[in-house]
Amino acid sequence: MSKKELSSGTEKAESLTRKKSGTKSNKSESVKTKSPEKKTEKKTVKTTAKNTEKSVAPAEKKAKGKAMKDKKQKKVKAKKQLSEKQLKRKKEREQKKIELAKIRAEKKQKRLERKLAAKEKRLEKIAALKKAREERKAKKQERRDLLKHESKEKRIQRKKEERQAKVEARVAKRQAALSEKRAKREHRLKVQAEKRAERSEKRHAPGFGGWLAAVISLGVTTLALGTMLTFGWINMNGMQNDMATVHTESIYELNSIVDNLDTNLSKARISNSRNEQVRLLSDIAIESEMAETVIERLPLEGQLTENMTSFVNKMGDSAQSMLYAVANGKTLSESQIATIEHMYNVNKEMKQIMNELTANASNKDMLAAMSGKSGNLLSSSFDTIQNNTIETPKEINDGPFAENIDKVTAKNLEGLGEISASRAEELARKYFEDYNVTDVKCTGECIAEQLTCYNLTLTTNDGEMSAQLSKLGGKVVEFNSFKDCSSKNFSVERCIDIAEDFLDELGYDDMEPVWTSENGTTCNLNFAYENDGVIFYSDMIKVKVCEERGIVTGMEGLSYVLNHVERSVPTAKLSTSEARAKLHTGIEVETSRLCVIPVDGGEVLAYEFCGTYDGSTYYVYIDAKTGDEVQVFTVVGTAQGRALM
Questions:
Q1: What is the dihedral of CA 109, 113, 115, 118, to 10 degrees?
Q2: What single DSSP character describes residue 565?
């Protein structure tokens, strides 16, 4: 290649380099004494390299610039996207702050409302306390004024009336609860009867079989008749099962009552508060009545429930007697506390047997009891109660030997002829002429012990009465008048006179009052036959007199009718002092007399001593021939009862 072909840009660059190098060399030589050749070479190389790069890689530079631009755009875009997320988060934070502020405001408002309500409640309470304080202050002032002008007798009477009102209110409440419970039970039984009737109707409803039997000819009459008999047996079986269910419910109800009695008696044993004693004794009296009602519904013979019925009756009477004593401000005596203990122990054993019975009894046992089969669980359980559990306590609240009835023939009626039902109605009109009887109706016959009687219903202007007259001789055996007595207008002494006149009208002569007790506004009296100063307790008649109206509202003379005959008075071998020497030395004797008492189916002449020992009243009977102690009673409910000698 020629020299000319190498010029152009390169030659120009070299010439310019040389010029510059020469100029700079000259300058450097004037200033310094360094080699100009090295500097020139360096600059030349650098410039050459630079120009070479510019000329050689313009495309790479352009690509690099484009890449840098793209990168910058991406950064701007990413930055822009980041700012949008931040803005969104910022908005969310602001919204959350607003919601939190709203919640705080609501909480603050509720807190203020609660404070305001609490303040109002506090102000109301303060106002109520202030009002109650003012009322108490007014009552105290009223009581001060009352006590200031009230005499001691009036104060005692007022307190007695207040206590009586509280007792009556509590008793009324218990009776209302009892009535409600009975109503519920009756409603339940009614519903069950309706369901049984509905099931019976469904069984008798005509179906395909009835239609088919009506269509088929007389050739299958025998088969149809057999089917009907079978269906009737099944239906009867279903009714028996329903009755068994009802009796089972009665067993469960009796068990529940016995459990409640156990609880109340256990509390009464240790209660020393008058209000609590009133409440407990009221419950015991009501529950005893409920137990008696349930026992009467059970499918058992009377001999299996006789002692149990007698026990719950006495328990109710004792509880009622103690209730009136406590209500009148008196405390229970030691004998009454001992009676509660005895009732608790007997009821506890009854509870154990009843719990076992309800746990093990089945529908089969109930059906067996209903059919009268022996050896079933129900009969054996009540037989255990009858013979082993209940012992007749030697304690009295209705007079000595009041429950005595010898199962013998009616001695008083021997030789008398039978009367008709119409004659019994005539006699009833005559006996109860003073009661303004408007109608008498004989409703049938009944048997009391071994005595056949007519049941009579007597209608008066004040309501109905019932009476039983013996078929032999037409003697009045029992009488009841359903009249309310709410106040006391007649004394006990006047009630005795009224009862004696009533017995004389019925033909019962030579009767001596031997016991009285008051149950609210009713005076209960026991009369026994008396001959030559000797009392015959076997010949007893019980009479109830209403202390408000002054009339006899009840009478029971079965013991007299069964036992009374004309007797010769036996002669005592021991004197009164000799018999008295047989007594416990600590007994303070108040009265004594000769009497004939029933003992083991016979009669014994004995001295009756009534006295006290350690705060309790006792009746002790000493055989007038042998001097043996025949019988001892403790008196329950002395606040309402007293012996008449």
A1: -160
A2: -
Nearest Cα neighbor of 457 from 435, 472, 440 is: 440
167: left (phi over 0), alpha (psi -120 to 50) or beta: alpha
| Residue 184 backbone class (left: φ over 0; alpha: ψ -120 to 50; beta: rest) | alpha
pLDDT on residue 215? 40
Provide the pLDDT for residue 214. 42
Which residues partner with 528 through β-bridges? Answer: 512, 540
What gap in Å lies between CA 275 and CA 161, rounded to an integer? 15
Token pair 């008295």 is at which residue? 580
Name residues of the chain where pLDDT drops below 50. Answer: 1-7, 24, 26-34, 38-39, 204-220, 227-236, 392-394, 638-645
Q: Which residues contact 316 (CB under 8 A, 6 or more apart)?
A: 284, 285, 288, 289, 292
pLDDT by residue (tens digit) across 64-98? 777 887 777 777 777 666 677 778 888 888 888 89
Give the C-alpha separation, 315 to 318, whole Å: 5
Residue 118 neighbours by CB distance under 10 Å: 10
Nearest Cα to Cα of residue 620 among 591, 640, 598: 591
Distance of alpha carbon 482 from alpha carbon 343, whole angstroms: 30
Give the tokens for residue 9: 């840009």
CA 275 vs CA 263, 325, 427: distances in Å:
17, 12, 49
- CA gap 394, 355 in Å, rounded: 28
Q: Is 158 helix (H, G, I), strand (E, B) or coil?
A: helix
Strands 629-635 and 641-643: unpaired
pLDDT tens digit sequence for 570-616: 889 999 999 999 888 888 999 899 999 988 778 899 999 998 887 77
Question: Over the range 86-113, which residues count as b (16 or more CB within 10 Å of their CB) and which as e?
Answer: eeeeeeeeeeeeeeeeeeeeeeeeeeee
According to the model, what pLDDT value does residue 497 have? 92
CA 317, CA 313: separation in Å to the nearest integer?
6
Distances (CA, A) of 597 to 18, 226, 250, 533: 174, 64, 39, 14
Bridge partners (DSSP) listed for residue 466: 457, 480
At a CB cut-off of 8 Å and minimum separation 6, what does 142 contact? Answer: none
User: What is the C-alpha separation between 632 and 134, in angstroms, rounded?
Assistant: 59
**Residue among 643, 613, 600, 328 at smallest CA distance from 488:** 328
Strands in 491-571 per DSSP E = 511-519, 522-531, 534-546, 551-556
C-alpha distance from residue 200 to each of 194, 242, 395, 503, 537 (Å): 10, 11, 52, 53, 56
The letter for the amino acid at 356 is: E
